[in-house]
Structure to design on (307 residues):
C-alpha cells in the first residue's frame, strides 16, 4: 500500500501551479490551503499564548502532559507558515511522546529578514529557561526552515552562553543557503515540491542581500558544532535539500556529536506532514518520538529515566 500512498502524494504535490514567481501573499495563502488538508491527531488541545516577546501556540495532551517540553519551529522558508500550519507535526509529536510543545510565531521575511527568525527562536528558548525549566527537559524540533532553526538557535544559544537543550529533531531541514549540495541538481525534477528557482525566490527574501556564506545561514558547511546536543535528522530521497541533512550529519559526527541520519526512500520534503495518509510518515514520527523520549530527562522524578 505504501507505494500507492507515495505515488498519490507525489501526484498531489505536482498539481499545476501559477506560472512565474508568486507574491508573498499568494505563497502564504497557498501554503495555508495545502496544510489545512493534513490530519491533526486526536487527543491534543491547543492554546494561544506568548513565549518571550512573540505569540506562540501551546500544544498539550488532553489528559495532561508529562514533564518535558518540545520547542517546535514551523517550516516555510522563513517567509510563510505558522504554528497552525505545522499542527500535523507538533500534534503528532505531542500525542506520541506525552510532552507539551510550544511553537513560536517567529517573524517572517521579507518584512523581517535574517536574523529575525533566529532572534525570536532564541528569545523563546530563553523564556523557557527563565521560567525555571531545566535545559535537560527541553528539546528543539522543527521542519524545513524550522529544522534549520533547531541548529542555528543552538549556535546562537551557545554564543550567548546559554546551555544546550537536550536534543535536536529536524525534519528535512534547510541548512545551506549557498545551495551547493549535489542533491540540488541530481534531485531536480524528482523533487515534486521545490526547484532551485523557487528556493532562490524565497531565499532572497530572507537573505535581504546578506552573504549566504555565514554559519547562521549555511551551518551544514560552515558551522562549528562543538558541544551540540544529540541530533536526529530525517529527510527523504526525493528532495533537493537532501544533502543539507547528509552534510550536517557528517559535520556533526566530525565534531563528536551524537547524530542519527534517518533517510526514507521515495518520499518528499517534510513527508512526516502526511501522517495518517502515508505509512512512512507515521513510522518516522514514531522514531522521532522515541528519540525525544530517550533524550528528554526529568530531574527529580522517580519515573525517569525515560531512555
Amino acid at each position: 500500500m505504501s507505494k500507492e500512498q507515495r505515488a498519490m502524494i507525489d501526484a498531489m504535490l505536482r498539481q499545476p501551479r501559477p506560472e512565474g514567481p508568486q507574491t508573498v501573499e499568494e505563497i502564504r495563502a497557498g501554503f495555508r490551503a495545502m496544510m489545512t488538508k493534513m490530519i491533526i491527531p486526536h487527543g491534543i488541545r491547543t492554546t494561544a499564548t506568548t513565549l518571550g516577546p512573540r505569540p506562540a501556540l501551546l500544544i498539550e495532551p488532553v489528559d495532561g502532559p508529562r514533564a518535558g517540553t518540545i520547542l517546535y519551529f514551523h517550516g516555510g522558508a522563513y517567509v510563510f507558515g505558522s504554528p497552525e500550519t505545522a499542527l500535523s507535526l507538533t500534534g503528532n509529536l505531542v500525542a506520541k511522546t506525552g510532552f507539551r510543545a510550544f511553537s513560536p510565531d517567529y517573524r517572517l521575511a521579507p518584512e523581517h529578514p535574517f536574523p529575525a527568525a533566529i532572534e525570536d527562536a532564541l528569545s523563546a528558548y530563553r523564556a523557557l529557561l527563565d521560567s525555571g525549566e531545566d535545559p535537560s527537559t527541553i528539546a528543539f524540533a522543527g521542519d524545513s526552515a524550522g529544522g534549520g532553526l533547531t541548529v542555528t538557535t543552538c549556535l546562537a544559544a551557545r554564543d550567548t552562553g546559554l546551555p544546550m537543550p537536550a536534543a535536536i529533531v529536524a525534519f528535512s531541514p534547510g541548512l545551506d543557503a549557498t545551495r551547493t549540495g549535489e542533491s540540488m541538481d541530481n534531485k531536480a525534477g524528482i523533487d515534486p515540491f521545490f526547484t532551485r528557482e523557487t528556493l532562490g525566490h524565497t531565499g532572497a527574501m530572507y537573505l535581504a542581500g546578506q552573504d549566504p556564506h555565514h554559519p547562521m545561514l549555511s551551518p551544514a558547511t560552515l558551522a562549528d558544532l562543538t558541544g551540540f546536543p544529540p541530533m536526529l535528522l530525517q529527510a527523504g530521497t526525493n528532495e533537493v535539500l537532501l544533502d543539507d541533512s547528509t552534510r550536517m550529519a557528517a559535520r556533526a559526527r566530525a565534531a563528536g556529536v551524537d547524530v542519527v541520519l534517518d533517510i526514507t526512500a521515495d518520499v518528499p520534503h517534510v513527508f512526516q506532514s502526511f501522517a495518517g495518509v502515508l505509512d512512512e510518515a507515521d513510522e518516522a514520527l514514531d522514531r522521532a518520538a522515541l528519540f525525544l523520549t530517550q533524550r528528554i530527562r526529568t530531574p527529580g522524578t522517580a519515573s525517569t529515566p525515560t531512555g
